[in-house]
TrEMBL record:
Protein name in the entry: Phytoene desaturase family protein
Record-stated family: Belongs to the carotenoid/retinoid oxidoreductase family. CrtN subfamily.
Residue ranges occupied by any Amine oxidase domain in the UniProt entry: 32-92
InterPro entries according to UniProt: Amino_oxidase, FAD/NAD-bd_sf
Entry superkingdom: Bacteria
């Protein structure tokens, strides 16, 4: 395995670091209200995957919508962006239905 300090231009990297912060799950829970310190949302278990994930539209509260990597369709930037589109489509559909 190559150390970063062995790469061209990074030979003195460690000497140039001015601030280093380490975050623990407890820090994420306290500072970001992340449930049990989860940094990536739901666990990738079968019952938290695909359509088992929380959907874009609340079934309990009218006008409440969700998006992000913990909602359907799932994690990863392209997939989370698609989740945002799904959520926006739900909002538009509901908004047009009230007009």
């Amino acid at each position: 395995m190559t150390s970063l300090s062995n790469l061209s231009g990074l030979e003195n990297l460690a000497d140039r670091i001015e601030v280093e912060e380490i975050y623990t799950p407890e820090d994420f829970e306290r500072q970001f209200n992340a449930y049990r310190g989860a940094t990536f949302g739901l666990q990738p278990t079968l019952m938290q995957s695909n359509h088992f994930r929380p959907q874009s539209k609340s079934k309990v509260v009218e006008g409440l919508y969700f998006t992000g990597s913990s909602t359907h369709p799932g994690a990863g930037v392209p997939i989370a962006l698609e989740g945002g589109k799904i959520c926006a489509d739900e909002v538009i559909k509901d908004w047009e239905g009230k007009a």
